[in-house]
Amino acid sequence: MFVLIGVALIALAIALMKLFHLKTIPIIAMIVAFVMLGVSLFVTQIPTGFTGVLTTFGKVEENITLDAGINFKMPWQKIVTLDNREQRSNFAFNAFSSDIQQTAVAGSINYKINPSTAMMLFKTVGTNYKDTLIVPRLLENVKIVFGRYTAENLISKRDLLADEVLALMRTDLESYGITVMTIAIEDIDFTDSFTNAIEAKQVATQEKLRAQTVQEQATMEAEAQAERQRISAQAEADVAKIQADAEAYALTTKASAEAEANTKINASLTQALIDYVQANNWNGQLPTTFMGADSSTVPILDVTE
């Protein structure tokens, strides 16, 4: 762009020479220099990715922001450029947990400024907004978040810590026109004494788990053995009960059969049948004794005498 302007100025100078019949090179140089000085006073180029803030005698012009490219100004005005691209910054702080354990925190923050409010950011903070605003707020918020957790919880909640710090930073910087994109907690380092204590605790925990596993296995084996014995005893009891029931049933059946037989026999007995059976079984011998109807008065007599 400035090359084109220079060519145009040279062409203008040559035209002026012809118009005023000027033939010396110094005069041409003076004209070109004068025109270039005028252009530099009235024209400013803002690089891509930057926003311009216009000041007049050091005073910020309200509600005026200049985009990238060629911009015009008055000679007594100045344009300050602010980077509106996404920027990354690393940090390393010390913070304390809720149980007063010191930690060394390392991470990074990505942020960008809002071009439409760049004028207010420059007016209230200046161009060094990173060191003046972002870093102090980041340190404060990291300490706040880390103070909510014990040292042991900090180890397992790294992503949660970053999210909480991010939420606080967005709230703090939003009014300044700075948008925080991401925050990463990349490393949390503890003192050697605390690290050794954590390792000892982990070893003790592993030993405890191993002992519990062995005990649980032994308990399971004992319970399984007892259950097998119970099942075996129950099976034997069931077999004995079945046998006893069978024997009782057999006895009951036999008794019922005998009773039924006796009932039938009793029903079939008559005096004539009894006499007949007795007659068939008589051996031909007469009784040798006789007893009267009343044994208390009539003695037993020996008929053989």
Overall description:
α1 crosses α2 and α4 crosses α6 (158-173). A hairpin with a 5-residue loop joins β6 and β7. The chain has 305 residues and is an alpha+beta fold. The protein is 56% helix and 23% strand. The strands form four sheets. The protein has a three-stranded antiparallel beta sheet with strand order 3-2-5, with helices on one face. Strands 6-7-8 form a three-stranded antiparallel beta sheet. The protein has a two-stranded antiparallel sheet with strand order 1-4.
Number of helices: 8
Rg calculated over all Cα atoms: 60 Å
Percent helix range: 55-70%
Largest sheet: 3 strands, antiparallel
Proportion of strand residues = 15-25%
Number of DSSP-assigned strands: 10
What would a concise description of this structure say?
The chain has 305 residues and is of the alpha+beta class.
Summary keywords:
single chain, 305 residues, alpha+beta, 3-stranded antiparallel β-sheet, 10 strands
Note the topology.
Blueprint: H1 2-20, H2 25-42, E1 43-46, E2 50-56, E3 59-66, E4 69-72, E5 77-83, E6 87-96, E7 102-113, H3 118-124, H4 129-146, H5 151-156, H6 158-173, E8 178-190, H7 192-268, H8 271-280, E9 289-290, E10 301-302
Antiparallel strand pairs: 1-4, 2-3, 2-5, 6-7, 7-8, 9-10
Helix pairs in contact: 1-2, 4-6
